[in-house]
């Protein structure tokens, strides 16, 4: 935090000397220090010129006293909330579009009939739009629900198929968004009388640990795409480093093989060229 503040203050931009980089209060007291949520730092007192510059440049990487540091600057928007709702697991969960459509229809059918969900949707949307029927509002809210099949690395370090439920948030504030998630996760969904769709209602019930690199809730650290990018400045898993080393060695081996072949062809080509040059020179003489 102090390193980032010093770096920004060192920029030759008006207002940089007044800025402060602060660590917000943590909402999860079970996790301590830098690993507790939210995983962000906040910029205070920066000038408009400074904010415009860092938002335009976006990603910075620098080194101070041997410490390699990278960060990205994004605009803080309190109205942006994730579409992701929860994971779904079970014996019937597999990459089967027909089964997924059946499950999604069951979820939407249950919520459409649920009084608590209907009242919540009606109350949220009534604050932002013209009067219309509660049925129309509920149908519109449910029309954004989607179910995706994902291969994730579970806590046992094995690949597992999970379904992930997404929907466009209708909440106007954080409390409404929390209630939205609570209502959806709190229902019992059945494809038939014997087959229940089990939603991960608590984070402890997730089949995988959320990503420690990009902090995304929809994949595990092993599945994060960012460390696989060549210019990634953050932590790199051992598996990715090993894969890069293997690729590098294979590339060097291929390059060495091509190099030996090129030298051989080059010698032969040069010899033919030499003969050709001598012949052309002789033919070019006037006598």
Descriptive tags:
single chain, 287 residues, alpha+beta, 3 domains, five-stranded antiparallel sheet, two-stranded antiparallel sheet, 9 strands, disordered C terminus
Ranges where pLDDT stays below 50 over 5 or more residues in a row are 264-287
Rg on CA atoms, Å:
29 Å
How many DSSP helices? 7
Number of domains: 3
> Strand order within the widest sheet?
6-7-5-9-8
Oligomeric state, counting identical vs distinct chains: single chain
**Beta strands, count:** 9
Helical coverage, percent range: 40-55%
Biggest sheet architecture = 5 strands, antiparallel
Could you tell me the mean pLDDT? 81
Instruction: Please identify the structural class as seen in this structure.
Output: alpha+beta
> Approximately how much beta-strand content do the residues carry?
15-25%
Order of helices and strands: HEEHEEEHHHEEHEEH
How many angstroms separate the termini?
A: 84 Å
Shape: flat
Can you walk through the features of this model?
- This protein is an alpha+beta fold and 287 residues long.
- It has helices at 2-9, 48-57, 97-113, 115-126, 134-142, 174-185, 238-284, and strands at residues 20-22, 42-44, 59-64, 67-72, 84-89, 146-153, 159-166, 189-192, 195-199.
- The strands form 3 sheets. Strands 6-7-5-9-8 form a 5-stranded antiparallel sheet. Strands 1-2 form a two-stranded antiparallel ribbon.
- Helix 4 crosses helix 5 and helix 4 (115-126) runs antiparallel to helix 6.
- The longest helix is centred in the last third of the chain and has 47 residues, at 238-284.
- Residues 264-287 have low confidence and may be disordered.
- Residues 242-251 have a biased composition (Basic and acidic residues).
- Residues 242-287 are annotated as: Disordered.
